Amino acid sequence: MSLIGAIRADTQRAARLRRSAVGYLFILPIVGFFLAFVLYPFIRSFYISLTRWAGYGTPEFIGLRNFDALLHDSIFWTALKTTLTFTAISTILQTLLPMLLAILLNAGWRGGTLFRTLLFIPQVVSLVVSGLLWQLLLDGNFGIVNRVLADVGLHALTRHWLADTHTVLASILAVSLWQSLGFYMLIFFAGLQGIDRTLYEAARVDGANRFQEMLRITVPMLRPVTAVVVTLNLIGGVKVFELIYVMTGGGPDHSSEVLGTYLYGLAFGSTAGSIPAVGYATAVSVVVFILGMATVVAQFWMTRRSRNVY
User: Fold this and answer.
1) What is the pLDDT, as a whole number, of residue 247?
2) Per residue in 278-303, pLDDT tens?
């Protein structure tokens, strides 16, 4: 019996090994893809950030000189400040306004479906197309925005919106809000459908009004959804590029320069005197990576806090 038991155990072990081998065989393509197109470029980027390289020839290893140069680069600090400002303001606006709209639409407004559809339409338009469209609309000489303001007697409010250092960032933030409002609103609207209606009935029995219901029930129960929306906004703010590059290219006078546009200009020569500075640009990208990792940490923290609701 012991011999039969040993043979049976060996057979079962061999079967498990075959199943494991088949499983590893199935995940081998994705592992290979990850190693070739994610991990290797990731490690390579860190190495390039330690070199002086124009994108051709042999990289010259210079250690941490690129990062030391960043500390004394006024344009880099301007781009970092603008990136953080854009991220903070866009996250606040693109979280609170979609939440409020979703709550109002969930209250049963007539025509709510049509309104949701109209708000979502900008989301299906690419950022490049949106940027080009609003660049024309906000043109200081021929733009429709200034023309409408002048026609209604508000000529004093007309501006060269994208050429004025005082209004360019606000203009881009408004376009970003227009483009993403419907998407985040639908996320919140979906979250509202999962809230138990009996909570509101119990609150009404206790004499709560609509504002108290929103403050004490809706907002706390939406905390997991809010964490997702905030995280998406943080990541989108840190890596913002297309909209700003198309609308202003980082101008005027670097007033709308963000890390994405700055490293692009460095890597392709439009910032470094027409000489590509890929090594230095990659050092900027490492900073973007660090900021992105900070948003991931924030996501884990917010997700853990949101679980306390339940």
Assistant:
1) 94
2) 999 999 999 999 988 888 787 777 67
Amino acid at site 2: S
β-pairing, 51-52 vs 60-61, is antiparallel
**Which residues, at least 6 apart from 197, have a Cβ–Cβ distance to it below 8 Å?**
none
Q: How far is CA 251 from the centre of its chain?
A: 21
* First and final C-alpha spacing in the chain: 54
pLDDT in tens, 92-109: 999 999 999 999 888 776
Question: Torsions phi, psi of 107, nearest 5?
Answer: -75, -10
Mean pLDDT in residue range 210-226: 88
| Per-residue pLDDT tens digits for 240-249 | 999 999 999 9
The 3 state secondary structure assigned to the chain is CHHHHHHHHHHHHHHHHHHHHHHHHHHHHHHHHHHHHHHHHHHHHHHHCCEECCCCCCCEECCCHHHHHHHCCHHHHHHHHHHHHHHHHHHHHHHHHHHHHHHHHHCCCCCHHHHHHHHHHHHHCCHHHHHHHHHHHCCCCCCHHHHHHHHCCCHHHCCCCCCCCCCHHHHHHHHHHHHHHHHHHHHHHHHHHCCCHHHHHHHHHCCCCHHHHHHHHHHHHCHHHHHHHHHHHHHHHHCCCHHHHHHCCCCCCCCCCCHHHHHHHHHCCCCCCCCCCHHHHHHHHHHHHHHHHHHHHHHHHHHHHHHHHC
Mean pLDDT of 194-202: 87
The Cα 281–Cα 264 span in angstroms is 7
3-state helix, strand, coil in the chain (%, to 5): 75, 0, 25
Q: Tokens 């979906």, residue?
A: 190
